[in-house]
Prior knowledge:
Elements (H helix, E strand, L loop, with lengths): L3 H15 L6 H17 L4 H15 L10 H16 L15 E6 L6 H16 L3 E6 L4 H14 L3 E2 L7 H14 L4 E6 L7 H14 L3 E7 L4 H14 L3 E5 L8 H10 L3 E5 L7 E3 L2 H9 L1
Helix pairs in contact: 1-2, 1-4, 2-3, 3-4, 4-11, 5-6, 7-8, 9-10
The structure holds guanosine-5'-diphosphate.
Keywords: Cytoplasm, GTP-binding, Hydrolase, Nucleotide-binding, Ribonucleoprotein, RNA-binding, Signal recognition particle
EC number: 3.6.5.4
Family: Belongs to the GTP-binding SRP family. SRP54 subfamily.
Amino acid sequence: MAFEGLADRLQSTIKKMTGKGKVSEQDVKEMAREVRLALLEADVNFKVVKDFVKKIKERAVGVEVMESLTPGQQVIKIVKEELTVLMGGEQSKIAVSERPPTVIMMVGLQGAGKTTTSGKLGNLLRKKHNRKPLLVACDVYRPAAVDQLETVGNQLGIPVFSQGTEKNPVDIANEAIEHAKQEHLDYVIIDTAGRLHVDENLMGELTQIKANINPDEIFLVVDAMTGQDAVNVAETFDQTLDITGVVLTKLDGDTRGGAALSIRAVTDKPIKFAGMGEKLDELEAFHPERMASRILG
Ligand code: GDP
């Protein structure tokens, strides 16, 4: 379950506050210390933790009984609100181009879940938003990647535009967009190549695709289970490509939550979706408030 470890720790810290009719400075200090440790243990970025704890301390000192909440309950409310803000506040919507198709470029390292997520996203757009997507195979370095996207498309009954591995990805992407226009498809989801590590060739190719197709969204797919590595990858991709959002995959297996809690603050880019399992319908819009509730119960 996502955030399991963090949820346990924060909830036990917070339970101590619930009954308090009065919150002393000492109480706030202790609570802040434990929140700090819990977040660090969850692999949240060090600076993000520091800023977060400072904020809740400032807000929690001197709370008085307000409306129907005891001071203890108010402190919990503050932590929950700040966790929500940390993960982006409002839910971030997906772009809709005024002139269809809306073009989404999927980028990320190999194994992060890019191909699976491309299929999942097409499925979600079709089922929830009643849109007609097209999947595009632009990872021309690995024949297996093209096959994999075709398999995913077949499973879902979503068309896949592929031209093998001989052509260059910019041409494939452009032709796919033309094809989508002719077929009156609404979304073009481009699955780009990934590498095991960030490298110049990969970034050069992605920059070139971006410059040529001018996508409406560039979603970085990162594996939540890699914690701070995912945050570093996000920073690097964002610096080069100016991404528009993040998809966090494998949140189902991430008991810590460090990436989910750091990426927004570090990159200032929203988390748009979360992968919650291997199945092709296990992609959810990312709701910061619901995530915060998951953590605090
Ligand atoms: P790519 O190399 O980035 O295209 O990655 P793939 O799409 O091939 O995914 C790599 C592995 O991660 C596959 O085994 C997927 O089933 C798995 N995967 C992708 N997303 C999720 C997710 O949200 N949860 C879980 N548990 N597994 C996922």
